[in-house]
Amino acid sequence: MDRKSYVERLKEEVRSLCEKRRAVILAHNYQSPEVQDVADYVGDSLELAKKAVTVDADVIVFAGVSFMAETVAILNEDKVILHPVREAGCPLADFLNIETIRKFKEKYPRAPLVVYVNSYAEAKMYADYIVTSASALRLISKLDDETVLFGPDKNLAAYVAKKSDKKVIPVPPHSYCYVHECLITRYHIEKARDERSTAKLMVHPEVSPSNQEMADYIGSTSQMLKAIDKSDENIFLLGTEEALSYRARNLYPDKEIYPVNPRAICVDMKKINLLNMKESLERLKHKVIIKKKVRQKIKSILDKSLEMIK
Ligand code: 13P
Ligand code: SF4
Q: For residue 6, how far is its CA from the centre of ligand 1 (angstroms)?
């Protein structure tokens, strides 16, 4: 059997297992084309968290990294949440540990701690608010506090500081996502622009501030998609993980859309594939289990934070 027929057969098997289990697949915008194709919903981390709450299903298969699957599990006590590959984590989340949080809270006792959703549950437990890249600026702008602790991700912190009137202290100061910091550089942007000089450049706020300055638009993955939809322009360069371009081309087939760097790949996102999704649905593995106390605490912070950006 050739690869194409094999992939098509796997897709059919995954879809029929979904029917059998009354399951839906939620996939992040960075998933591979075949995973996006088989998913019920594709979106950014905020959209997927919201969708998970309203979707009518017994089981959710989450195609993304572990912090996103955890967030979905925290918001959905009554559904079975499956994360096909437990080890699909987020290296950015590793930057924020309890020791670092305590150190910064001691130094800035009056500043609220806003925790980026790209973090582990143990860090979220200490948060006053939890945000995604789509909600960080909106939520922080609404706070009365002048100074805010934000982590992990120094670049998103710098973006919010620049666009709001707040002092946003990155926790820790050196935290970054390797995909956006190291694989979307000035070199990659200039090279992509040399090849397509009339293209509009859109970047994720996780890219470094000097590269944000080069962009025509800055936003979360789905905010970029919406901005393409609204734009009269026809050619776009996306400064983020390469798979967003597949999603964008599917949505807007009349536009020309390219990744700034086709090698800007999030290795952990790509650990999810059709085979492990099929196995996950067959054996109901791996269930995301969150301890009750942790779930209740983080859910109350998430609910409060989601309410603020309504
Ligand atoms: P979005 O919420 O913009 O989809 O981003 C998630 C992410 O992991 C960015 O690297
Ligand atoms: Fe984490 Fe970066 Fe991958 Fe997003 S792209 S999941 S921030 S490592």
A: 30
- Strand order of the β-sheet with 167-170 is 129-131, 113-116, 147-151, 167-170
Residue 222's nearest CA partner among 205, 200, 198 is 205
User: Measured at the alpha carbon of residue 129, what is the angle toward residues 127 and 131, in degrees to the nearest 5?
Assistant: 115
pLDDT tens by residue, the chain, 310 residues: 898 899 999 999 999 999 999 999 999 999 999 999 999 999 999 899 999 999 999 999 999 999 999 999 999 999 999 999 999 999 999 999 999 999 999 999 999 999 999 999 999 999 999 999 999 999 999 999 999 999 999 999 999 999 998 999 999 999 999 999 999 999 999 999 999 999 999 999 999 999 999 999 999 999 999 999 999 999 999 999 999 999 999 999 999 999 999 999 999 999 999 999 999 999 999 999 999 999 999 999 999 999 999 8
Residue spans in the chain of domains classed CATH 3.40.50.10800 = 3-89+269-290, 92-177, 184-259
Domain 92-177 has CATH 3.40.50.10800: yes
Which pTM does this prediction carry?
A: 0.96
Ligand 2 in contact with 225 (CB < 6 A)? no
What is the Å distance from ligand 2's center to 183 Cα?
12
Find out whether 34 and 69 touch, Cβ atoms under 8 Å.
no
Quick one: fold of 184-259? Rossmann fold (3.40.50)
CATH level 3 topology of 3-89+269-290? Rossmann fold (3.40.50)
User: Is the minimum distance from the CB of 65 to ligand 2 under 6 angstroms?
Assistant: yes
